[in-house]
Structures are given as C-alpha cells and as structure tokens.
Amino acid sequence: MAWVGAMLRVRGTVLAGAVLLGLAAWTQGAAAQAAGPGTQPGAQPLPEYRVAEGAKAVTGRPSTADAPLLDVGTVYEDTLAPGERFYRLSLDSASSVYLSAVLRPPAGTKVGYSDGLEVEIMTAAGRTCPYNAGRSTFGYDPVPLAAVGHRRLQEDSDCQAAGTYYAKVTREAPKGSPQAAWPVELLLQREPAPAGTTAPTTAAPSVRPSASPTLPTADPVARTGGTGFNDARAVDAGVWRDELRPGQTRFYRVPLDWGQKIGVGAEIAKARITKQYASASNGLTVSLYTPYRGLVDSADASYDGSQAAVTLPTTVPVAYENRWSDVNEVRPVRVAGWYYVAVTMGGKVAEFTEDATPVPLTLRLDVRGDAGKGPAYREPLGAGGFGVAPADRAAAKDGLTVPEAVAAEDTRSTMRLVAGAGFGTGTVLLLGLGAWFLLARRGGAARP
Q: Potential cystine with 93: which of 12, 104, 162, 378 (Cβ 3.0-4.6 Å)?
C-alpha cells in the first residue's frame, strides 16, 4: 500500500508539473504576442507572420517546364516577384483539391487595390479548370493576402481525369508598385472523394447569408490573436478581448461543423489621439476565411480614433452543396473545419494616434445550429485538414493555437503513458503479493 501511495504521489507530481509547464508556456507565448508590437513610446515593429513549422523551401518556375511538384498536406515557402510562377500537381480522378497562396509584403510597404494575387489550376494541356481561379487584392495595407485555386469534383469536367496538372500563381503589380520579391506560403489540400458511386447532390442551394446577425453581449474574455493562419488563436461562440496597433492583423480560428453558421462582429475602442479631425477610411477591416484559406466575406469601416465597428452577415449553414451556388458568399462555405477570422487596424491610423499604444479590440462571434451529419467520404475528412474533431472543440474551449494544441496533445499522451505504466506495474505487484499471500496460507495449513 505504501508503494501505491508513492505511485499516486509521483503521478500527481508529474501531472501538476505538466500542467504548470503548459500554463507557463501558454502565458509566456500570450505575453510575447501581446508585447510584441510594443506598448512603450517609440513603437517596436509589429510581429511578423508566423510560418508553419516544417515548411519546405520551393522555387516556382516561370513556365511549366521543370515546375516543382507540390505534395498534398505539405506547407511550402517561396518568394514571388511580379509575374507568374508554375508548380506541378499530381491529382487523382475523384477528389476536390485546393491550392492556397498567402502573400506577405514587408511591413510598411506601399500597396493599393491594383496589387493582387491570383491562383489557378490547369490541365497539362493548359486549359484552366472550371470555376477555380481565385483572386484577391490589397487595400491600402500590406496585410497577409490569401488566394485559392481549386479543382472541383464535377462530372463531365476537363479537369476530372487523374494525372499531371499545373498551378499558376500570379502576383499582380502595376507600374510604380514595389517590384521586390515577397515571401509566399503555399498549401495543397485534398478533400476526399464522396463514398458511393455518385457524388452528393449538385443542385445549387437557395439559401443566402443573413444580413443582421444577433451577436452576443456577454463580458469579454481575453484571447490574443495570432499573426496568421498557422498560429491563429482558437475561439468559439462568445465575446473576446484583444488589442490592435495600426497596421496590425490578428487571426482567430473557429470550428464550424456541418449545418452550423457563424456571425462575426468586431469593435475597436478609443485610441490616444495626436491629431484632431482625421480619419482612416479603412480603419477597421474584418475578413472570414474557409478551412482551405479561401475568402468567404470581408467588410471595413472608417475610424477617427474614437470608435468603429464592423459586422459580417451570418453565413449560410456549412453544406456540401454550397459549392454549386452562384452566390460568392455561399459557394466557399462547403466543408466543415476551422474557419478563420482576420481583424486589421489600418496603418493610416498611425497618422493621428499614438502608434505605440494598442487599442482595445472586442470580437463577437455567434455560432448557430447543431452539428449535423455531413456527406460520407471514402477517407477520413481530417486527413485533408477538414472536419471538426472533439480535440478541435477542446482547443476552441481552451483558446489554443495549433502549436499549443499539439503540445497539449503530446502532454496528454505522455500522461496516459505514465498512468498506464503505473497501473500496469501496480497490478503486477498486487497480483504477486496476492499469490505470495495464498501460498503462505497454504503452507501454514499444511504444517501440523
């Protein structure tokens, strides 16, 4: 029994240590993110976009000849000057695929609405796949810009056969725009083929986004957003508190399952004003992205240093058939998984406020609908980075980034191993003691 008590004390000590280490790591990470922009006079640089851990370097080619192959599920890093770059893809005949590109101008770079990014997937013969080219443009801020090209599973399509395809990633920069190469992050994701001999319905839905969501009004809870898709802070329905500096973008991720929809609203409060009667036309911008990093919707509002708010329409429920819609805000909401919210304070705000002093940000999220049953797939949807698992809901509840969620799962696995080892060893010892006790009794009974 003394051994059992000792083992319990060891397990308790290990668990407490793991919890304290995890809490310390999360606190340090959150503090570093919050302090990164600088809160003292003489503003420090804004934190840079966090690249995915293990991202591989790749160099796109100016033509399809010798274009490098991109593997599904691998994150790649390249640099992109104005013009076209080509990459090679090896696709099957039944899956939908998505190639996202995230272009990242250096902080302080001057960009405009004519600067943009386009991604398209084409056959080996050079024919562009139907409905696939994704294009995005900057506003006035050098924020991370995402665009997605895709090969949609569709009968009688030129892009249905298995084989070699090419992706063309184009950076658009008119005369007078910066010409230096900027880093770009590439990710190829595969949505598995539906189970059965026929795909789910191809009828376009009649639903549309709701223009007036009812957003929660509870007291806010602190959550520090990330720098991009790779370290976006997990959140769920509720009210969340963060802070922004001019030119900064905060990223958050929300799990949305089949049948669920989301409404998003953001507010920035009063800043320390240094110049009266000035404003920024795009002082606050809110954008919603899909699990494959495609834009669902975006809106902005002017800000004069006193108060600003932006509300996005509530999306339609997540459904497979949304991909057949002709409505731009419906078509992307086609698969369950992590949806991303990006909130940006315009860089021009620094012209009439104290740049070094962060402004309070309130993020309101309304998730509606019960998680429903989606279409049956031939393979687990999670293999492509889609779907919502119990671990995802736990991460949203605890407010974890992807690196933190991975670390938490590693800690849980270690604790299960320690607990299992302790239980197994204890069981063997108790069985041994029991056998010894029985033999001792039998020996005593045999003596005259």
A: 162
Pair of tokens at residue 115: 């600067």
**What burial letters (b/e) apply to 406-433, b meaning 16+ CB within 10 Å?**
ebbeebeeeeeebeeebeeeeeeeeeee
* Predicted model pTM: 0.83
Token pair recorded at residue 357? 């002093």
At CB < 8 A and 24+ separation, what contacts does 10-19 make? 10/422, 11/418, 11/419, 11/422, 14/415, 14/418, 15/415, 18/411, 18/414, 18/415
- In DSSP notation, 224-291 reads --BSSSTTPEE--SEEEEEEE-TT-EEEEEEEE-TT-EEEEEEEE----BSSSS--EEEEEEEEEE-T
pLDDT tens digits for 250-307? Answer: 999 999 999 999 999 999 999 999 999 999 999 999 999 999 999 999 999 999 999 9
Rounded Cα–Cα distance for residues 396 and 425 (Å): 36
Q: Which residue has the tokens 């429920």?
A: 317
Bridge partner residues of 332 (DSSP): none
Cα separation, 272 vs 246, whole angstroms: 12
The sign of the dihedral angle between the CA atoms of 30, 33, 36, 40 is negative
| Amino acid of residue 4 | V
Listing from the earlier edge strand, what are the strands of the sheet with 134-137? Answer: 83-91, 163-172, 116-123, 134-137
What string of DSSP letters covers 147-195? EEEEE---TT-TT-SSEEEEEEEEEE--TTS--S-EEEEEEEEEEPPBS
* Sheet strands side by side (includes 182-191): 56-57, 75-80, 182-191, 96-103, 145-151
Q: Tell me the C-alpha distance between 239 and 221, whole Å.
A: 6
The two structure tokens encoding residue 9 = 């004390």
Token pair belonging to 209? 């986004």
How many CB atoms neighbour CB 94 within 10 A?
Answer: 13
Phi, psi angles (nearest 5°) of residue 45: -60, 150
